[in-house]
Amino acid sequence: MRISSPALLAVSGLAAVTSASPFFMKNFATGKKPISMPAQYKHAVLQNNNQNTTGPCYASSTLSTTKSPLDNIFSALSEVEAASVTKFLHEQSDLNLTANVNATSWDNVIVLVELLQPNKSDALPYLNGEGPKPHRYSKATIQFQATLEPYIQEFMVGPLPVSNETTLQPLNYPFNKGVGIQKIHNADPDEYSQFLVNISTSIEDILINMFGGTFTNSPDDVVTIGPSDPLWIDDETGAVTTWNEYSPAPTGLYGTGSLLRSGLAVRTDLTGRDPSKWSVLGWYYIGQFFKTTDDLKAAFNNGTVDYIKPQPDGDWGVTAPSGPVLPQDEIPPPVSVQPAGPRYGVDTEEEYIEWMDYSFFISFTRDTGMRLFDIKYKGERIVYELGMQEAVAHYAGMGPGESAQAFLDSYYGFGPNAFELVKGYDCPAHATMLNTSFYWREARRSHENSICIFEIDAGYPAARHTAVNYVYTTKNVHLVVRSVSTLGNYDYMFEYAFFHDGSIHITVRASGYIAAAFWAANADYGFHIEDTVSGSMHDHVLNYKLDLDIHGTKNSLMKLDVVPTTEVYPWADGQPRNTMKLKRSFIETEDDSKIDWAPNLSTMYAVVNKDTPNKWGEYPGYRISPATASTAHLTIVNSSDLKNSARFAEHHLYAVQQKDTEPRSAYSFNSLDTANPVVDFDKFFDGESLDQEDLVLYFNLGMHHVPDTQDLPNTVFTTAQSTVVISPQNYFLQNPIRETIQQVEINYDLESQAVTGIKKFGSEPAVCTYDMSNTVANLSDYHGGDLVVRKWPYDPSNPFFGTTEIEQIGN
């Protein structure tokens, strides 16, 4: 029997034979792990050519021959491009640049060099075969620090490759502030650390009594101090202040730092660059505010504060197994295998994927990590761009250690924190792994195996029906593209799943350690979950951009309301009947396009094309809808912390006209001055028409998180997840799920209860001997961190110049 279009099999670990069967890191721990340098990074996709029916699976393998029909115009800069742009920038004397390896906080430095994504107006003609390939340009982020008022500015370098035609221009058009410039109010981290050491010395007795030591900014300290984010900037005076909370230092391997709190915090004024003018503005401890350090010390000395010793870390924060082993848990669990190799293709050079009737490009950036472009289904584009824009984690609490925390995580970067995935755990062992890279502070940083692609059976059918004399059921096999970024304490799993029915599921999951609060009768803000630990309530909001193109770029946003009604029908004897009906309308302008999901999910939205009705007169389109109960927007209204920097987080869904001047809803350095962001999403809405225009949707995934004891030691993906689905609405004349042959129809005689026929429609299960060692990844090859290749100074004849080790960065 020949293996033909095999579906994936879930097999028990006990079985040997398969058969047909159902830029700145957050304030948490850092370490380094040197490993040997790989000769080069390569991806491999194995395609099984085995035709045996009784022999072993994977009898022979070859590399996939999938080839992208076009160059990936969204791909990251090559090593040569990044190095040449860096060299070009250093040749511009007016920039007065210093190499990062030699720079101080008073030098101008290159922060980031990456691809400036092509404008859609330039990209579409090329993608449609109607125009030339767009010129490549680099976005260069430069930090100007050789001034009393330091700032970050964005520049545009191109066209590439660097030549006599290459120019340097300020990059302003993507930013509705008018200029791509943001002030830096904390440009002297070393000096500020010393300032905190001096403050800590002034309360040394309190810290020794509370923690057994003081803060000296040494790795051996038993106490740490963490700043609030974002900074507070007074709109009238320009004063810059922040809160810093003391915490016990973690004592072991595990990243428990964010669980440990003391409730003791100091507010400082760090306005300007002269540390001698910085000052202490007050102290907070368990519900009491002290204006001066002397007031705090007096309160501790005379016993007028209710002193509570903070809880150190311990077994309660350890993620290793504890307690009795679960019954039969020592038996290897079911795993997923590919008996005939992958049924998808990957062009690793172009980061182009094909699976069944889908195709798309992958892009990767420092700020937002993985994004997808030019998603086609059955040869027609349905999505031009899909990807996360920004992630908000907004806390609340009785004290400033929680209330002053509102992270805009693209500041820290999802790209730098997308580390290697663990095969067999983060992804099936048979997954195809892709590497990612970005260019940060004149070095190329690469992460092996940080994106995984795999096909898997969902474990439930895509469709089925039982009738009087037959039953049919269809396998629900789908393709998943996944990455994980660890932002300090939280691990975000980003996933795009493609299904045979034409739907795409966009999912984010959260795990890792919660950022806890000190328990001090603050039940209004969280549960008491350990001795002196409270779960700190917070909202996660992750904003996504979705640029749907339905039979072209001229689309409208349809609104479908399922409404209760009382109707009198001619067949009902004149009696009114309480029922429901469908109300159709369109969102006409941007003024009406800030949308919240209806309480009963009784309102549906779809991007449709009015100009291309189907044979029944219905407008084809793609519907967008939440697939989980948790798709949160911010609870806080007009956040005192975020101000104008995260207006995208205030509703569930938005629709605007597509503009090349509005490529992203956020900016990675908005958090440096939240009242005056470089990109203010609210300015996208200026009353323009949404009737048969090129539309862009922005939607939010997320959750309202009130941590409880279930979050110890870690929050779990199984509950902390959020999904939105885009699915065809009258786009096809019937569901394309019928096109898969991975289904079965069983005919039977009702009276005799005998099977009279089995139809497999050309599909056959794989019947071959499977080597279960293929499901076990070699975990000793795990690298985890950055492969750092210095790009300035750069020696083209030695591409690994300046490379010393792989840096492990994480909890």
UniProtKB/TrEMBL annotation:
It comes from the Eukaryota. Contains 1 topaquinone per subunit. GO terms for molecular function: copper ion binding; primary methylamine oxidase activity; quinone binding. It holds the Pfam family Cu_amine_oxidN2. Residues 335-737 form the Copper amine oxidase catalytic domain. Its EC number is 1.4.3.-. This is Amine oxidase. PROSITE patterns: COPPER_AMINE_OXID_1. Residues 84-163 form the Copper amine oxidase N2-terminal domain. Topaquinone (TPQ) is generated by copper-dependent autoxidation of a specific tyrosyl residue. It is an enzyme of class 1 (oxidoreductase). GO terms for cellular component: plasma membrane. The modification 2',4',5'-topaquinone is found at Y490. Transmembrane segments: none annotated. Residues 1-20 form the signal peptide. The keyword ATP-binding does not apply. GO terms for biological process: amine metabolic process. Its cofactor is Cu cation. InterPro entries: Cu_Am_ox_TPQ-bd, Cu_amine_oxidase, Cu_amine_oxidase_C, Cu_amine_oxidase_C_sf, Cu_amine_oxidase_N-reg, Cu_amine_oxidase_N2, DUF1965. PANTHER family: AMINE OXIDASE (PTHR10638:SF20), COPPER AMINE OXIDASE (PTHR10638). Belongs to the copper/topaquinone oxidase family. Residues 258-323 form the DUF1965 domain. Keywords: Copper, Metal-binding, Oxidoreductase, Signal, TPQ. The active site is at D409, Y490.
